[in-house]
Amino acid sequence: MADYDVDLFVIGAGSGGVRAARMASSHGARVMVAEEYRVGGTCVIRGCVPKKLLVYASRFSEDFEDAEGYGWTVPKPTFNWSMLIANKDREIARLEAAYTTTLERYKVQLVKSRAVLEDAHTVRVLSTGARVRAETILIATGGAPHMGAKIVGLEHAISSNEAFHLTELPKRILIQGGGYIAVEFACIFAALGSKVTLVYRRENILRGFDDDVRAHLREEMERRGIKIVCQRIVDSIEKIDHGYCVGLPDHEMVMVDKVMFATGRHPNVTGLGLETVGVKLRESGGIAVDEFSRTSVKNIYAVGDVTDRINLTPVAIREGHAFADTVFGNRSTPVDHTNVPTAVFSQPEIGVIGLTETQAREQLDKVDIYKTIFRPMKATLSGRDTRVFMKLVVDGATGRVAGCHIVGADAGELIQMVGVAMKMGATKADFDATMAVHPTMAEELVTMREKAMSYTRAAAE
Ligand SMILES: Cc1cc2nc3c(=O)[nH]c(=O)nc-3n(C[C@H](O)[C@H](O)[C@H](O)COP(=O)(O)OP(=O)(O)OC[C@H]3O[C@@H](n4cnc5c(N)ncnc54)[C@H](O)[C@@H]3O)c2cc1C
Fold this sequence. Notes:
six-stranded antiparallel β-sheet, binds flavin-adenine dinucleotide, 24% strand, seven-stranded mixed β-sheet, alpha/beta
């Protein structure tokens, strides 16, 4: 131990790194963490948090419209993008300071610098050139936007990083991508008044989500005026007098004020010195780790998006916490990556957990599907043309609920609690035995009686 300057060196002060650093410190370790940009990482600085603030802002537009049917006279509302961004920036700065204070409180040494590996026990801090010897190293460097193939004019496209700092709200924006970040930004900009075109190379948005969810959200987004162009890909971006001319196949052109690419993210592994020390990557480009987040080098661990397992904040936090308990807390703690609930903060919102119908049919011998589409009560007086969608995927052999998929207001809040039930192994019979809360949207989850579909593997083959 005496050989080392610190017991743990953490590279990256994001969700996973900060949690690991403070837990390791609370277990008695001497910890140093390096951060090259801002403390808090993607989630706090340019991910979940600022995004959710923009989502809140965007949702007022429907609230103002809906209020009328409930007797309110709302003068034509106006919206100030600069004020929103300034307020959002103030909140992000407050959170960054809170994270920094937390690290100080836990006696974690913070160095504001890029750090790279020199050998299995040495980290070089680039701002000073200092070499720090550490017994254990944790790589928690997260991910970064991946802008896709090099096309003409790619330098004009922004990523989600820049979208949080636009000086004005674009009147027209083209967003390329079909993942949750593309979809969320499309909904934010559209609700704030931008004309939005979403371009996606595959057959439908939100690949990996349940097909019914994908179809339902697409319809809802189109109903809100978002133009969704699938099976196309941007092939050029030209700067013109007032904005950009975006080229699509077959000489189609779209004129916009901003072009945003949300075409995926890649793990931050470049230039870290991983090859030098022998840390192996998986085919996806993420760092290969075992269930305890240990890499191919025995004293080097990796957590969060850099491992490209499930790229979500709570997962990075859990992995960081489990790593600290395992290595410094004398408690071997693997992370369970099954049944992770998640939300898409689109308009309307999505909340999902577990297997999609397609996955269930591939993995289970017998599958029962329950689903419902209905007009939410709030839409009756407001007159809004919108529908809620819910689906339960049930393991027909055991009765256990294997998947739950919701599209509707507050679906993210709902799915958190469905997650608890599913983690406990709830069956469809348990759902049925639970008394409904009336009148709510959620009561539909415990009142779906009729099977919409039933599959057995033999019949499906
Ligand atoms: C637009 C957007 C919206 C999102 N929305 C959600 C959401 O709603 N819910 C959700 O759960 N997840 C969301 N995510 C994903 C979430 O932000 C990430 O899963 C999470 O931040 C991963 O945490 P991490 O600790 O692995 O990495 P990060 O939080 O990315 O932290 C990594 C840190 O390492 C630093 N770093 C990198 N290399 C070095 C180096 N060599 N030296 C020093 N420092 C370095 C980086 O600057 C960064 O601060 C969103 C992401 C984006 C981009």
